[in-house]
Specification:
By secondary structure, the protein is mainly alpha-helical. It contains five helices and two strands, in the order ααααββα. The protein has two domains: 76 residues, Orthogonal Bundle (Arc Repressor Mutant, subunit A), CATH 1.10.10.10; 35 residues.
Length: 111
């Protein structure tokens, strides 16, 4: 397997976690401290710390220190374009799946 494929798989794994997606969503409009994120998501400090580390390591977020406090923010807002595209794709798949199921239900009812 090529290095690029491995990188893509690792990147997709990062996005496949609900807490990390919630963190990205929180950081969409403004930078926040880990305590603010912890409070907003009602998760433990260690859980948030773990997820922030993963997001930072994968270059999705960065932090800046202000008066000795770390503020996390999105490194590149283009990540949200990708997330919107994924959401649209999944909605399309679900719509198609529902349509297929509805058609099968109609056929089953008629027969």
């Amino acid at each position: 397997m090529s290095e690029l494929k491995k990188d893509i798989i690792e990147f997709m794994k990062v996005l496949a976690d609900q807490t990390r997606l919630e963190i990205l969503d929180l950081l969409y409009r403004e930078k926040r401290t880990s305590s603010e994120i912890q409070s907003a998501l009602n998760k433990s400090q260690s859980t948030i710390s773990q997820h922030l580390k993963v997001l930072t390591t994968k270059n999705l977020i960065i932090f800046e220190r202000i008066n000795n406090v770390k503020y996390y923010k999105i490194k590149n807002k283009d990540i949200f374009k990708l997330l919107v595209d994924i959401k649209s794709f999944v909605m399309g798949i679900n719509k198609e799946k529902l349509q297929t199921m509805s058609n099968e239900d109609i056929i089953d009812t008629l027969l």
